[in-house]
Model the fold of this input.
Amino acid sequence: MDFPRTVDEITPEWLTQVLRESGVNDGVSVASFEATNVGDTAGVAGVVTRLELLYNRTTLDAPSSVIVKQAVADDEMRAITAPLNHIEARFFNELASSSGFPTPRSYFSESDRESGYVVHVLEDLGHLRPANPVRDVELPDAQSALRSLAIMHARWWNDGRLLDHQWLRALDQPETIDWLMSGYGQNLDGFLRVAEGHIPIGIEEIANKLRPAASRMYADFAKPPFTLIHGDFKPANLFFDDSSTKQPVVAFDWQLAGRSNAADDLAQFITLGFSTETRRVHERQLLAEYHSQLVDGGVEDYSYDELIEHFRIALLARLPIRLTVIAKFGENMIKTEEGRKTFFSMVERLQTLIDWNCDEVIPK
Done:
């Protein structure tokens, strides 16, 4: 597939073609651009670059800047993220506009599944307010985020059209279970080593108990109800548009988009959105409000008690991913001050599994 694998391979001519074919360029050409790496943790699981564009003449139609997201150069890291890069490219090309959740506009998205290389040219959301990835998300922001999430979940609730998109991550696919559980023991060992001294008491026991029961748990969790999920729904993947009252939240990083139980997104958001103390104050209110909004969106025959049971299972279902991320990327993350804060926050917030007695829902 012919697309630039690195920032150095991007040319003004290629950007001009991309913008013209996406319909946002009024005939001007990109004369040059200035590239800036975005974020201290860029390069951990992907390379994110802001391109400031200079055109050959004044234009009001074409964007002044774009965000380019590409795969890492490291072969091992790129092999890990290759399936995810493919999912995100398909999402932007096939489902983003109809998802029901605001996303950055995609001017170009393409991936090579075999090599793992990918390039996205996306709308620059730098004018919007980002969430702080370490501090607690503010309650009004959390309520807005889960309200928008409920809108998307209700729109796709048990919708058979999702079955037409077999590239969506789904827990009833053997390859998904294999991906989640691949190297589980090694990743657990790596997690215990990298996160030593910060792991909540009881997490190691849950992780060991889950290992032989995980496949059965995933198979049960994949049964209806299902919906379209973001898959990595956390404050760090959101921007807030304070000028909008309808849906003031925009979500990016759709690498884990899937067809799954709605509680998957809730588990990610509530675990990573709050410190343990703040979560304990707000989580029940947020879950109850989310359920009410599902009902308002037309979801029937799904009780609050069912949601809570699925939420507990979803916390468990995400554990192998957390172990993998921490084991594989932890050492890189702790090389920067921002990365260290994010890393230790991720580890310490696993306390959620203890507070919800998730060991009780592991299949016997």
Remarks:
- The two ends are 47 Å apart (CA to CA).
